[in-house]
Specification:
about 10% strand; 3-stranded parallel beta sheet; about 280 residues; single chain; globular; TIM Barrel
Length: about 280
Amino acid sequence: MTESSARPVDTCAWIGGYPFRDLPHPEPAVLVRVLEREGFAGAWVGSLPGVFHRDPAASNASLYAALAPHRDLLHPVPIVRPDWPGWERQLQRAVDEGAPAVRAYPMQWGYAPGHAALNALARAAGEAGVVLQLPVRFEDLRQRHHLDTAGDLSAAHIRAVARLSESAACLLVSGASRELVEEVHWGLTPEEQQRVWYDWHWIWGPPEDHFAHLGRSIGPERLAWSSWWPLRLTQQAQALVDLLPEELAPTGHRSSFADGAVILSAAHRAAGWKNAST
């Protein structure tokens, strides 16, 4: 997909089971049909069960194998845990596999803001031209299982990574609320702001109109398309665009927002890649 394409690349999807409730059809083949139905050109896909493994290597291998028959549409986004031995090999494998991004889960791993291992991963991902994706949550606090004890990712965690000196890391924050987006965005310099994107799947539409507010304040170019399959209704992203106020109608066009292709191109440019293609 190119940056001008009318069909966006979904930046946040998973396959596999979830330990706290049953999920309908978390298989790659079903995701392919969902993307076609919802008008996506492809998706960044991670392993949901791997989030809860101490060592993500096995789940990453399973992810690559499961997506192999669908690699024209489903792009692997493996987990890289930077306090685990051999994490550099996992990052290099991601690069070799053509992964557009890697995902990190600081709250599940017990990282405090500014953790040295996460900083090291951000710098390495930036140098490799790979996006560092930071999911905030999986479920609303009101429905979260009592065994799911990891809290939501904080603005302090995200800002600490975005502010790293001599870092080219491009960050994608998935599952943030309006409050978290604003706390991060307005706490960064203009240059740092340009390397951070947020999907809007957890941002409220009418009547609060948080999504419209962010479109006006930080700009649609900082907001990224996502489906959140299979954890949330995939129609949410398009519904919020359709419900934008009339004065934002030009801004509400699909191409006004970021997607996987746009963010990956930015990561390539930040890493100094020449003639990068997506």
